[in-house]
Amino acid sequence: VNDFGRALLIPNNIMEAVDTIIKGDLVPVDVGKMNNRYFINIAGGGKITEVSYEAPSKLKTMVGPLAYYIKGLEMLPQIKATDIRIEYDGNVFQGEAMMFLIGLTNSIGGFEKLVPDADINDGNFTLLILEKVNIAELGHIMTLASRG
Fold first, then answer.
1. Which of 1, 2, 29, 121 is close enough to 110 for a disulfide, judged by CB 3.0 to 4.6 Å?
2. Which residue range(s) make up the domain with 115?
3. What distances in angstroms separate CA 64 from CA 35, 42, 123, one per listed residue?
């Protein structure tokens, strides 16, 4: 699962990807900045975001986005809400959240339908905040996220 590569229309097939890169077509992309660190795909926080780091690459290659569900179920007892404060577009969100994501592409964790209108170079970011929910609500939200 390579959200950034997908947004750049780089094929998953390694040889096709190499050919695409060698062609050398340049694509402008937005660059985000959070807490003095730059990012080109996604930035996030909260305990639930650790799932993406903990899901093994081999599992992601084998089952795609399903790898996040598998690892998420394993980590579920550890996932707790965190107090956060996010300032955006003149607004402020302050409260308990399971996670927050700031995305530049239409694909987050392999879920292309989550933010279908996002564009890698339109100057806009997508902010997703998952407020504190119970396990049943989290399962329902994840099901909805997978469907778009």
1. 1
2. 29-147
3. 30, 18, 28
